[in-house]
Amino acid sequence: MAIFSLWVINKAGGLVYQRNFAEGLAQLTSNEYLVLAGTLHGIHAITSRLSPMGSSSGAQVIESESFKMTILLTATATKFVLLTSLTEHNPDNVLQKVYEIYSDAVMKNPFHTPEMPIRSEGFDTRIAALIGTGQT
Amino acid sequence: MSHHLFLLSPSDTPLYSLTHYSTKPVNNVSSPLASNLPNWSTSAFAGTLTALSGASGSAHQTSSGAVRMGGGQDRHVIQMIANASLDVIEDIMKTQSTMFLKSVDKFNEWTVSAFITPGNMKFVLLHEGKNDDGIKAFFTDVWELYVKAMLNPFHTAHTPIRSPVFDTRVRASAKKYL
Amino acid sequence: MAYSQPHSRVSVLSTSSQSSVEHLSPAASSTRFSLPSIPATPGFQASRPAGVRPNIYDRNLNKTRITEVSGAAFTFLFSEVVQYTQKRVSGINDLERRLNTLGYRIGTRVLELMVWRTEAPSKAPKREIRFLPALMSIHTQVWRAVFGKPADAIEKSVENADEYMIIDNDPLIERYISVPKDMSQLSCSSFTAGIVEAVLDGLGFPARVTAHNTPTTQFPSRTTILIKLEKSVLEREEVLK
């Protein structure tokens, strides 16, 4: 039961925030993270387009043998992705709170430019308070 | 009997003025300065001086007396008296914490009462009779109207108040209390 | 003309079909113009009181005394204010000065409205003429009127007799603001400083008011509002003693 990582992907598919909280996943370079985020953005687009039930919000959970990714899509097409262990029981709840923190500490901050990488001390400290500072 | 109201900004720019002719009975206040002053005629300012002294020269006198013009009622003289009283008001307001300063100054038939808002706006009223309660009620009304006027985002401390509604309300209040 | 009198127009339309001709014909409309809306106006106002433009003078000043503003709406607005201002300035000092000016405009109104609400019902309304009580009332009343809670402390400078400080441990307006590292001197509370400056100015205590970040580990956004009084204020206080 662990939260490995949090990604925030903007509506164009760019990774604007990435932070690791626990060991367990392979360590990648920041460039590799950017590529993976772009790929996920594409997969997400495919899942929402191909839905047989008409319009869809796309993939919500992607599970592998050792971990899962939970995706929260906001109304403005920003994606929050939480990488957790399979046993993590309520990733959606955590994502909701992350979304709340994002709207407070990022969107209300006059020094943040929309769609640009998030460099906000307030966001960092609030996320740390929610999930933990890191290597636990 | 007439009343003259001036609203002055903290830097003493007039923002609004009103002349109100009351229908209520006059209780005359004698003007000691007028009787003591000689009738000067040599000075170039003779007209203003007699006006300032409050002595009503023959030229100024009207028979009806309903609305007296000239004498102490000249517009520029009224303004001068109001301005002159500012020094007194500024002295008093430093030591006295009440907003309503009644009868701070006297000049001939005129008594000057003032009201200082917390934001340092000065309401100056020139009146002839004694009517403290009425004047206080009037000032309180004007204060409320002024607070409303300044809540307008386009109003600054130095913008003359030109709102017709403001004017109507102040006149209505003057009619009621003065 | 027709648009300003919806009622007369509606009645015309309902009675006859030639109304459109009447409205389009210049001759017909000119007769209407020659009779300035004397008959129409009273009826217009009486039948449509809601159509009259709302007027601040009709409104009770105590109406919004205890109502609250949405915190999110305020922070978004303030965020836009900072962004707008930042695009138009050359540096941090300039930005702070502009925020101060904006706050000043708020302060003059806050002072007048706040005192009106407390003093107008009293028989002999009073102004504050001594500095320390005025400072106390800024710390409690002004803060409560603007931010909904009193400030956290007042301090007097040890070195300079003309300096006082108001301290807020968690300023409302900075709650969601993270100033980037390269602008670390900037304090958005310059806006608050402007409010304080306006209140002091209005009460007759001219001062230079600035805001400074003084973070502690417990309160990372702790802010000090520094008041530097003009000489005349201290002299006057001496006389009044």
UniProtKB/TrEMBL annotation, chain A:
Its main location: endoplasmic reticulum. Pfam families: Sybindin. Keywords: Endoplasmic reticulum, ER-Golgi transport, Golgi apparatus, Transport. SMART domains: Sybindin (SM01399). GO terms for cellular component: endoplasmic reticulum; Golgi apparatus; TRAPP complex. It comes from the Eukaryota. The keyword Endoplasmic reticulum applies. The keyword Nuclease does not apply. It is found in: Endoplasmic reticulum; Golgi apparatus, cis-Golgi network; Golgi apparatus. One of its GO terms (biological process) is endoplasmic reticulum to Golgi vesicle-mediated transport. InterPro entries: Longin-like_dom_sf, TRAPPC. Part of the multisubunit transport protein particle (TRAPP) complex. Belongs to the TRAPP small subunits family. TRAPPC4 subfamily. This is Trafficking protein particle complex subunit. It comes from Mycena rosella (Pink bonnet).
TrEMBL record, chain B:
GO terms for biological process: endoplasmic reticulum to Golgi vesicle-mediated transport. InterPro entries: Longin-like_dom_sf (IPR011012), Sedlin (IPR006722). GO terms for cellular component: cytoplasm. Signal peptide: none annotated. Gene3D superfamilies: 3.30.450.70. SUPFAM superfamilies: SNARE-like (SSF64356). This is Transport protein particle complex subunit. It comes from Mycena rosella. Coiled coil: none annotated. Transmembrane segments: none annotated.
TrEMBL record, chain C:
Keywords: Endoplasmic reticulum, ER-Golgi transport, Golgi apparatus, Transport. InterPro entries: NO_sig/Golgi_transp_ligand-bd, TRAPP-I_su5, TRAPP_component. GO terms for biological process: endoplasmic reticulum to Golgi vesicle-mediated transport. The keyword Repeat does not apply. It holds the Pfam family TRAPP. It is found in: Endoplasmic reticulum; Golgi apparatus, cis-Golgi network. It comes from the Eukaryota. Its main location: endoplasmic reticulum. The keyword Endoplasmic reticulum applies. GO terms for cellular component: endoplasmic reticulum; TRAPPI protein complex; TRAPPII protein complex; TRAPPIII protein complex. Belongs to the TRAPP small subunits family. BET3 subfamily. Part of the multisubunit TRAPP (transport protein particle) complex. This is Trafficking protein particle complex subunit.
